[in-house]
Amino acid sequence: MEPLRRAPLADQAAELLLARIRAGEWALGQKLPGETTLAPQLGVGRSTVREAIRQLAGRGVLASRQGAGVFVTALDAREDWDAVLLRSGIVAVLEARAAIETEAAALAAARRTPADLRAIRRALAGRGERRTEIAAHVDADTALHRSIVAAAHNEILLELFDGFTPRVRKAMIEMLRIRADFGSDSDHAAHEELVAAVTDRDADRAASLSRAHLRSLTEALT
Amino acid sequence: MEPLRRAPLADQAAELLLARIRAGEWALGQKLPGETTLAPQLGVGRSTVREAIRQLAGRGVLASRQGAGVFVTALDAREDWDAVLLRSGIVAVLEARAAIETEAAALAAARRTPADLRAIRRALAGRGERRTEIAAHVDADTALHRSIVAAAHNEILLELFDGFTPRVRKAMIEMLRIRADFGSDSDHAAHEELVAAVTDRDADRAASLSRAHLRSLTEALT
DNA sequence: TAGCACAACTCCTCAGACAAGTTGAGGAGT
DNA sequence: ACTCCTCAACTTGTCTGAGGAGTTGTGCTA
Questions:
Q1: If you average pLDDT over every residue of chain B, what do you get?
Q2: Would you say residue A60 lies in a domain?
């Protein structure tokens, strides 16, 4: 009759501390009460408090310095990321993707190597092929955009882009089922322009073209 | 003659365990040796081993079940994010942050509410105070930037910003120890301009000011 | 063979002791 | 009056020893 086995005290203490941090009891960079103060306050032993602190330290919320104290290093332990993407609307995702892609396009224009250009052109050619399946078309488009982000040579931006695409893919496919002005010539011309800007090392034009493209996409999905 | 203060034993033990996990010594889902075995093997006490395990548990690598043992739950420590940030150079992080902040500044200019403006002005005032401690100054600056990102009303961008700041914080503080042109009047004026642009709903100016600020910061750290 | 008691493991928690680092107050010297 | 130094109080770090609680597999019993 005990389907819930209660969590260890250390885990409970960690959750409790995190809640109090989130509530703003201690601001970012501020010091927590000492372990010897916290322990009786939470009703556990000192070692347990230490394990709770270690746990939060592993999540990047706390950092302890010997002799000085324990300090808050982040207001929030990044919750699962995927959960954030799912909870947020598609517009928010596209705005974030626009932020990534415009910066990446500018960097790509400055840093692209010949090998990058080859990969981009290959992706552009693949995108140009007329496809019957919508999903395949979306994936080809995504591959082109990804190759440009990769040419920026910034691992973080690429990682972010990859995190967004799965979420965007569904919405894109659904949209194209309704309004199919996707494979249009004007749309493809816009992409060729973007590739040309990267090739010519024109960072500003690459950024603004990228921004314009994402913006029109956002409006189409609204 | 020890400019590098060595990390606590628990941290070292955690790193060591993570290395052995990455090396494949214990497969995913497999059980680690008991604490009493691990402790003498690593040359530390049991409580230290426990703290190391807690730390890795907080990062999602290990999970312990009372009576059963400690098990590997992920081959890679949330490689998703923290590891990427740590592995990447500070320049890459700042470039990503620039991407986030410029877009956020533009959105903030369009969407800021009176309540947002109050929060931003409060943060600006806090940043203006002359502070003796470098860390406090960096945190006050971060708080201002965060308030602007928050005014964009895009949860993803805010989440990303919060993910970057802990990593940037260290580098900023170290830099300011060397060149202290941080609290300068010109620097503060630039921030006032940015706030003014958001207040005036001038998205383009907010974006370019934000981009310029992050770029100068990147160059200072190079 | 099926079921059960139990012993040997495991992690969990506490308490106490001492080491090592940090900080700020207060005194000595200028 | 100011600077520098000493030091005491406080902080986290580490180890040890002692039980408590849960899990697992062995081997006995029916």
A1: 81
A2: yes
B50 and B106 belong to one structural domain: no
Q: Does residue B102 sit in the same domain as residue B38?
A: no
DSSP A81: S
Residues A101 and A195 both lie in one domain:
yes
- Amino acid at residue number A180: A
Q: How far apart are CA A34 and CA A165, in angstroms?
A: 45
Report the run of H or E that residue A159 belongs to, with start and end. Answer: helix A155-178
C-alpha to C-alpha distances, B11 to A43, A55, B5, B55, B56, nearest whole angstrom: 26, 12, 13, 8, 10
Please give the tally of structural domains in chain A.
2
> Which structural domain range is residue B195 located in?
81-221
Is the minimum distance from the CB of B32 to strand C below 7 Å? yes
CB spacing of A55 vs B55 below 8 angstroms: yes
CA–C1' gap, A66 and C3, in angstroms: 55
Q: What's the CATH code of the domain at B191?
A: 1.20.120.530
Residues 6+ apart with CB under 8 A from A180: none
**pLDDT tens digits, one per residue of A48-107:** 999 999 999 998 899 998 988 999 987 765 556 666 666 677 788 888 999 999 999 999
User: Which among B14, B58, B135 is the nearest to A29, CB-wise?
Assistant: B135
How much is the pTM?
A: 0.60
Q: Where does residue B89 rank: exposed (0-12), middle (13-18), buried (19+ CB within 10 A)?
A: middle
